[in-house]
Amino acid sequence: MNYYADVCIVGAGPAGALLAHLLVKKGLSVILLEQNATLGQAFRGEHLNEEGEAVLKKHFLFEAVEALGLLRMEKLEYYAKGEVIKTIVPDPIIGHLGIHVPQAHLLKGILQQTVHFQNFKCFLHTKVTTLLTDTSGRYIGVVATKNDETIEIKSQLIIGADGRYSTIRKRAHIASQKQKHGFDLLWAKIPAPQDWEPAIKMALIDEKQLSLFSQTGGFIQIGWNIEQGNFAQLRKQPFTPFIHKLIEAFPQLDDIVTRHIQSWQDFVLLDVFSSHCDCWGTAGLVLLGDAVHTMTPTGAFGLNSALKDADCLASLLNKEAIRQFNVRDFQQMRAQAIEEVLAQQIEKEQTFAFHFIDRAS
Ligand SMILES: Cc1cc2nc3c(=O)[nH]c(=O)nc-3n(C[C@H](O)[C@H](O)[C@H](O)COP(=O)(O)OP(=O)(O)OC[C@H]3O[C@@H](n4cnc5c(N)ncnc54)[C@H](O)[C@@H]3O)c2cc1C
Q1: Are 279 and 250 found together in one domain?
Q2: Does residue 39 lie within any of the structural domains?
């Protein structure tokens, strides 16, 4: 089958979903392609900061997302030897220290407000494999596998919102500089004890960050930094001494952790890196979100940056002038802010241990 739209967006993550919504509202015809069969299938960042919140509110999407369920963080606590040593409370004007929004709620909330537009199509279970060019080398479409069928979508502009391992970036031969940050991350999810407050709790274990994030629906997400590339080695060690370090840091979780985290298999490994591209697109094609600037999980910036990219890119695209769109305008508007966030992440990673110094001295 062949399709045509003004814009073809590859990837229905936060960047692709929001951009699709905004462009459809501006009257552009949009086809949004997602390789997974359902939205929000891959585990990704779920902490919205006040900037991401502001973008959703600006476009009247926050209420739809909130109706599906979210949780505002009421404090940030630093722990040492099982006790709170420092507490940060929200600026009363902002009212929270981040909002946990399940990925599926965010994406469904946005797309529920989009599906009724005639100029919008979304194909799930559709994986883009190839880019099409015209004789001048301009990108004019994509080839994808939809269920088991090969389809072709031609468009004025192809948008790569396909995340950290972007196929669109690779097929367009756009170079990306990758940087490791000295750590990888283990994730696990456990039920929260009754009356567990909506909070972020942090501890320092063997000079590495251990974080607990309260989640919507009564869960706690555990994020535990480990030495870069060390998981294979770690897995050969006995598990009990490792998990006891978590219990020592947060004794109130002893019972639940013992019941729910019993082996290395209960953790999921995230290969932590950041990356950036010197060029954000080319003729007929533009990248945004993680596809053009992957961030580490530190400080929970990636989701919010992806939403801001979509907001900015949508402001530059008009139905009458898609072919005149110049990717450099978009890059100029966003690249500086992205560089600053990446620098902020590195600073946070390098100074995390300082939060615990008072206690040690
Ligand atoms: C474990 C983890 C925790 C994180 N925690 C936070 C956090 O708390 N707060 C925060 O702000 N950020 C966090 N981040 C970062 C955040 O998740 C990302 O920055 C954000 O999701 C980027 O959005 P995106 O839309 O650019 O890309 P993605 O969310 O990666 O979405 C890309 C989409 O494209 C689809 N896709 C990929 N290839 C193809 C293809 N060939 N064809 C069709 N579809 C395709 C994918 O299936 C996916 O749905 C975290 C990231 C990870 C991995």
Answers
A1: no
A2: yes
Residue pair 288/159 in contact by the 8 Å Cβ criterion: yes
Average pLDDT in the 255-262 region? 97
Mean of all residue pLDDT scores within the chain = 95
Q: How far is the CA of 224 from the centre of ligand 1 (A)?
A: 19
Taking 60 as the threshold, does the pLDDT of residue 361 lie above it? no
Pairing of strands 83-88, 75-80: antiparallel
Q: What is the mean pLDDT of residues 232-246?
A: 96
Which residue CA neighbors atom 31 of ligand 1 most closely?
A: 13
Q: Which among 303, 311, 313, 342 is the best mutation to test ligand 1's pocket, defined by most ligand atoms within 8 Å of the CB?
A: 303
In a domain, 56, yes or no: no
Q: Say if CB 158 and CB 317 are below 8 A apart.
A: no
Report the CATH number at residue 192.
3.30.9
DSSP assignments along 212-251, one per residue: EEEETTTEEEEEEEEETT-HHHHHTS-HHHHHHHHHHH-G
Q: Which of 292, 242, 238 is nearest to 11 (CA)?
A: 292
Q: Which of 122, 162, 171 to mutate to test the pocket of ligand 1 (most atoms within 8 A of CB)?
A: 162
Q: Integer distance in angstroms from the first to the last C-alpha of the chain? A: 68
CA gap 9, 334 in Å, rounded: 19
- Rg of the chain, C-alpha, whole Å: 21
pLDDT digits (tens, 9 = 90+) for 324-335: 999 999 999 999
Using the predicted structure, report yes or no on whether residue 168 has a pLDDT greater than 80: yes
- Please report the pLDDT score of residue 44 as a whole number: 73
The pLDDT assigned to 360 comes to 47
**Which residues make beta-bridge pairs with 162?**
none
Enclosing domain of residue 31: 2-46+103-179+274-352
Residue pair 139/133 in contact (Cβ under 8 Å)? The answer is yes
Query: Residue 29: is its pLDDT beyond 90?
Result: yes
Tokens coding 86: 């420092």
Given a cut of 60, whether residue 257 has pLDDT beyond it is yes
